[in-house]
Amino acid sequence: MSDTQLRPAWSEAFSSEALRALNAIGPLAQITPDWAWGGSRGEAVKVAVIDSGIEHDHPAVGEAVGEGIVVEYDEGAFYKFRIDPEPFPQDVSGHGTACAGIIHSMAPAAQLVSIRVLGKDMHGRGIQFAAGLDWAIDHGMQVVNMSLSTGKQEFFGMLHELADQAYFKNIALVSAVNNVPAPSYPSTYSSVFSVAAHAVHDPFTFYYNPAPPVEFGALGIDVRVAWNNKQMITATGNSFAAPHIAGIVALIRAKHPELTPFQIKTLLWACAANTRREGK
């Protein structure tokens, strides 16, 4: 899980004169946060949260949770998992509700879909993760938040193939980076939006990192988040940075549904706090 911060230096030092020049002239200079998502509330966008579930009736998610599934490990099943519908989704730990609440606070008209692959101990098997992602790809999600990852090499190829499928089906996958400086999947794939935490307490302030695999930094330190049993807590982690980017991506998708993940990344680059020109 991505519950401790792994922060590149989101400083002005990462914003070179070349980057500022690119964003000061030509078509990219016309891209502003207001143009990209101003006036959007995430209407008609489905956002899947692959996590520990979503507490469907938590005040922080309003009435945005439309459906859910539970992916259980099943030794007796052919593919070692089974998928059960969950008409009224629940969260077994609180983590998924925290991510969902952040997304809802930013894109209140988006529909949230709960995909539970983690248990009470915040652990799950890689095959459950892969199955949940596969379900999201096959069921019309436009944005998928993944504040979880695996470092097991055996799942590298499987998750990479799924990430590519999502990319080519115009699905934006947003992934929190690992909590230690070691490869984790799918956050290292170029087809996903990889996110780490920063401490600026503005949900719409984010940074571009010119030294991937971490691409973007968003609020993830001392964040007030929803938790189980209608609670609110203060939490820190890359897990909570990812849904801030997922929320912005949902706003962009609602306003500009024709854009591909590649084009949405370009908008995020143009609107990042350390790349856009002064006064933009």
Largest sheet properties = 9 strands, mixed
For the termini, the CA-CA separation is 36 Å
Order of helices and strands: HHEEEHEHEHEEEEEEHH
DSSP E strands, number: 11
Structural class: alpha/beta
The share of residues in extended strands comes to 15-25%
Walk across the major sheet and give the strand order.
3-2-4-1-5-6-7-9-8
Radius of gyration: 18 Å
The number of helices is 7
Query: Mean pLDDT, as a whole number?
Result: 91
Query: How much helicity do the residues have?
Result: 25-40%
Low-confidence stretches: 1-7, 11-15
Write down the overall geometry: globular
List the topology elements.
Blueprint: H1 17-24, H2 33-37, E1 46-51, E2 65-73, E3 81-85, H3 95-106, E4 111-116, H4 126-138, E5 143-146, H5 156-168, E6 172-176, E7 193-198, E8 207-208, E9 216-219, E10 223-227, E11 231-235, H6 238-255, H7 261-271
Parallel strand pairs: 1-4, 1-5, 2-4, 5-6, 6-7, 7-9
Antiparallel strand pairs: 2-3, 8-9, 10-11
Helix pairs in contact: 3-6, 4-5
Characterization of the model:
This protein has 280 residues and is α/β, with parallel strands linked by helices. Helices cover 29% and strands 20% of the residues. The chain is built from seven helices and eleven strands. The chain has helices at 17-24, 33-37, 95-106, 126-138, 156-168, 238-255, 261-271; strands spanning 46-51, 65-73, 81-85, 111-116, 143-146, 172-176, 193-198, 207-208, 216-219, 223-227, 231-235. The strands form two sheets. It has a nine-stranded mixed β-sheet, sandwiched between helices. β5, α5 (156-168) and β6 (172-176) form a beta-alpha-beta unit. The radius of gyration is 18 Å and the shape is globular. Mean pLDDT is 91; it is low at 1-7 and 11-15.
